[in-house]
Specification:
By secondary structure, this protein is an alpha+beta fold. The protein has one domain: Arc Repressor Mutant, subunit A. It is built from four helices and three strands; from the N terminus they run αβααββα. Helix 1 packs across helix 4 and helix 2 packs across helix 3. The radius of gyration is 17 Å and the shape is globular.
Length: 114
Amino acid sequence: MEINTSQILKGILEVCVLKIISKRDMYGYEINEKLSEYKLNMVAQGTIYPLLLKLEKEKLLTSYSTALSSGPPRKYYKITKKGIKYINDFIPIWKNIYTAINNILNIKGENNED
């Protein structure tokens, strides 16, 4: 059975994108590149833009356009105070989930005896 990584990432991708944007304003392609640097390169380019739109609708980030010397304006995303609060609220929840899953996956004896 193949593991569906997109389903695993679905819930945590929002906070990952917010955390990346919290360091500095970024545009969509740049966010995707940063995710790849963190080894989340299984995220399709087309996944980012609907997610950014959703986060903007939820007021977790805002956007603005900057004119370029050539080509169309570039849309940058900026985290809001609400977005920062979302990250801060998410961290303790994630730590609990991470610990619980690690404990489950590190069980010795059943089907994967060491």
